[in-house]
Amino acid sequence: MISAPDHPAWSAFLTFLQRAALAQQNGAAQAQAIWLEAAALLQPAAPDTPVNITHALLEQGRHDDAIEFAAIIAQLNPGDAAASFHHGYALQLAHRHREALVPYRRALALDAQFPQLRTNLAGALALTGGDIAEQIALLESAVKSDPLDSNGWTNLAQSSRAAKDLPRALEAGVRAVELAPQSALALNNYALALKEAQRWDEALKFAQAACDRAPQDPGMRSNLALLYLVRGDYEHGWPAHEARWDGSRELGGNRPAMPAPQWRGEPLGGKTLLVWGEQGMGDLLQCCRYIPLLAQHVHAQGGRLLWNSFPQMGALLVRSLGSHVDHYSAGGGVATLPPFDYEIPLMSLPLVLGTLDDTLAGSVPYLHADAAASAAWRARLAGEKRLKVGLAWTGSRGHQRNPFRAVGWQRLASAFAGIGGVAFYTLQPGASADVAAAQAAGLPMTDYTAELQSFDDTAAFVSALDLVITVCTSVAHLSGAIGQRSWVLLDVNPHWTWLLERRDSPWYPSATLYRQRQFDDWTPVLEEVTRDLIALANQPR
Description:
With 541 residues, the protein is an alpha/beta fold. The protein has 3 domains: 188 residues, Tetratricopeptide repeat domain (Serine Threonine Protein Phosphatase 5, Tetratricopeptide repeat, Alpha Horseshoe); 84 residues, Rossmann fold, CATH 3.40.50; 167 residues, Rossmann fold, CATH 3.40.50. The protein has 26 helices and 10 strands. It has a 6-stranded parallel sheet, with helices on both faces. Strand 8, helix 25 and strand 9 form a beta-alpha-beta unit. Helix 9 packs antiparallel against helix 10.
């Protein structure tokens, strides 16, 4: 008898099952019976044997073997909900969530009441961008059937938050923590809901508790880091922010392999340091201000500094900051760079160098548009005597917080249509359909975005405007970095850059912040912006 999946007879056992499954597929019932009998000689078929074997393989980290075995068992037992469930479960533990949907749905069709099935299926849907209404329906059904299902309540807190049902997210979060006070995921999901409710002290308490329960979980540390940073606690925030490479949805597991160690402040005499761009374009635009300080530090020690950025920047960064570094490049990969002894991602510079604190405002503007291109845009727009205002109403649609931070053209059209003395220009790339719809809805908007091929082009155009009104996206950082007057529209749980409550920004002194007062309520924000815009348009220029 096979006592464990690593037994020498495991391969023969699996082969016998594979041949039984193939015989079943070909309608060869006698052959199927023979192969199953052969497999049973190696492993007697007790009712819980397949489950035990699957779990043993998973515990050993042998996910591929577990998936293969569970798939065979599910094929041999097409009417058994448990077999399909454990096939989906094995796939899910291997982070193959999209593939897990098929066996989970098959199990659901066989037995919708199977324990943990609805909760797990909802989790797989959440991780693959599945329909949020289906997630909610599955989870509400699960906790109704079993009010003590802590996993169901934990997932319901997260899915309800994503569905913008904050009261239900908070209710589910409380219940999950009551049922599973030691569960890091329950504590973390409740903390995320508390952030949306602007209950910051409680959010910090539960996020810290989640990290205490799972100190090695980078996702928990990453979420805690964002809480520290948005509260201005940089002393704790920057060290915790290093978990972003494994803990955030956008960056998890995507840190590029480097042929040199990360620099953590070691002496650089005679050494070469590579600093490289990471995360989104806004993060790059925000933290490239550290390049002069870094260069001063490196060169004072007799070291060399290489900087690798993104090609989408055009000539903006090399013009503005390139003189500080020994070598600048944009993209191309590590293999195209000169040799280096240490590397550091751009967003780790505040950890090593400090946040700059009161000197932040003094560094702005630190990016400079091309003078000739700016002059050309000013000449081109010189005939427009109205207030010239650029608009951006959504960030990257793939960003996990974009549903919360995006205002949408519809709200802008409703708020700004009919305002006199203002000429609007879209700063939203690839949004011609939205622009046409806004124009049809009564918001006249000129679209030059086809001519803006890089951030350098956009910087020149923005510099020729009087004002930028934008949500939290790269346009806000670009406009702030060149010192343009910017009105930034923020949801209740903003990106850490904007901190909490304050109307100004230490990172961008030319920015004014318009914040939601209540979760998912943009109406007062747009009313305030509209009043201020009308007042500004009526001022003599």
